[in-house]
Amino acid sequence: MPTNSPWAESKIIGILSTSKKHLNRPQISEILGYANSYTRFQTFLDILPRLKSEDYWYALRNAYDSSDDLYHLRKEVRKAFLRRFKNRFSLMSAKEIQKLNSLPKKFKIYRGMTELEFHSHEYGVSWTFIKARGIYFRDKYTRNHATQHLQKVLAVATVNKKDIIAIFTERKESEVIILKGINAPEIEHSKYKWIKEQILP
């Protein structure tokens, strides 16, 4: 499992040792900033006991948004979004809440995933409502090292808006966080068919 550099770890320990019982938001941001994208979510899990309930969703969004290669922590990620702290909508900005409210009651979402994940029926929490982004994560994204060697597919499912935990539209992701309500997804099409579609006039 990846670890923070000794320098980053010393900075994090310094903040934790000099702070009060609960971390404030600048301290949360500073600690997560010292972690790298492969250790950031584990660092978030490590500081959970030092978070106030009202700062939990802020820290989760900060950590999750800027993390890579979370396959080994997929169960912890799901648990993190399932926690019952109040004000879960604070995961989203005002614009993101407005976007979520504007979506139809049912819509399609996409996820680039491994064939193993598709057949397991245990799906990751992160999907997208833009097909091109799903294709990107199937074909181009290389920072999920734990699954890089596995065959990928593009899954599509129709979901109910009421089952959506949050949507993240910053960083041009059009990301959908969903934990339930994904029933009978299908494989959208093969990689070859997608490439062929792109070159047709």
Would you give an account of this structure?
This protein is α+β, with helices and mostly antiparallel strands. The protein folds into two domains: 6-89; 92-199, no CATH class. The chain has nine helices and six strands, in the order ααααααβαβαββββα. The chain has helices at 6-18, 25-34, 40-46, 53-65, 74-82, 94-102, 115-120, 131-139, 191-199, and strands spanning 106-114, 126-128, 152-160, 164-168, 175-178, 186-187. The strands form two sheets. Strands 1-3-6 form a three-stranded antiparallel sheet. Strands 2-5-4 form a three-stranded antiparallel sheet. Strand 4 and strand 5 form a beta hairpin. Helix 2 (25-34) crosses helix 3 (40-46). The longest helix has 13 residues, at 6-18. It is globular, with a radius of gyration of 18 Å. The N and C termini lie far apart (47 Å). Mean pLDDT is 90; it is low at 192-201.
Summarize the structure.
This protein is α+β, with helices and mostly antiparallel strands and 201 residues long.
List the helices and strands and how they pair.
Elements: H1 6-18, H2 25-34, H3 40-46, H4 53-65, H5 74-82, H6 94-102, E1 106-114, H7 115-120, E2 126-128, H8 131-139, E3 152-160, E4 164-168, E5 175-178, E6 186-187, H9 191-199
Helix pairs in contact: 1-2, 2-3, 2-4, 3-4
Strand content: 15-25%
Q: Which runs of at least 5 residues are low in confidence (pLDDT < 50)?
A: 192-201
Tally of DSSP β-strands: 6
- Would you tell me the overall average pLDDT? 90
The SS-based structural class is alpha+beta
Element order, helices and strands? Answer: HHHHHHEHEHEEEEH
Distance between the termini: 47 Å
Overall geometry: globular
User: Helical amount among residues, as a percent range?
Assistant: 40-55%
Largest sheet: 3 strands, antiparallel
State the domain count. 2
What order do the strands of the largest sheet run in, or round the barrel if closed? 1-3-6
Taking all Cα atoms into account, the compactness measure Rg is 18 Å
Count of individual helical segments: 9
